[in-house]
Structures are given as C-alpha cells and as structure tokens.
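INFO batch 0412 | record 1 of 1 | parsing
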Amino acid sequence: MIKRIYDLVMNAEKNPLRSLPKYVRFQLMTVLSIMWTTVFSIWSGLTYLFGPSVMIHMILILGIVFTAEIFRYAKRLSNAVIKVQS
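INFO prediction complete | emitting tokens
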C-alpha cells in the first residue's frame, strides 16, 4: 500500500503527469521537489523557533481530546445504567 501511494505521487510514469512529455514531467517534478523542500524547511524552522508554542498547543489539544473521551465514556456508561434500570 505504501509503495502504491509513493508511486502515485513520486513516479512520473504513474502520477497524473504521465500523459505529458518526459521533459515537461521532469520540469514539473523538479518544481514540485523544490517547492516541497522549501515547505518542509520552513516548517521545520518554524517548529524549532516556535517549539514552546507547538508544545502548548499540543497539550491543549490533548486536553480537549481527553475531555471528549471522558464525556463519550460517561454517555456510554449512563446509557448502560439506564438500560439496566429499565
């Protein structure tokens, strides 16, 4: 599955650029590679610079997820109690 997904993006013979001439595919794949290199470089730099902010946001998101799971558990538990009482 991973190989198939990889081929759909990275293999110019299988991705949506396959119908274009080889030199155009090469040019577009080069542009995409430069663009993604830039995106990941900026992202990693921002993560390094704003690491504490990212950590705080992760803690906040984990708190929200934990709260939602507790509420879901309580709802299931209350439904089970109601069924037993009926």
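INFO post-check: DSSP finds three helices and no strands in the chain.
INFO record closed
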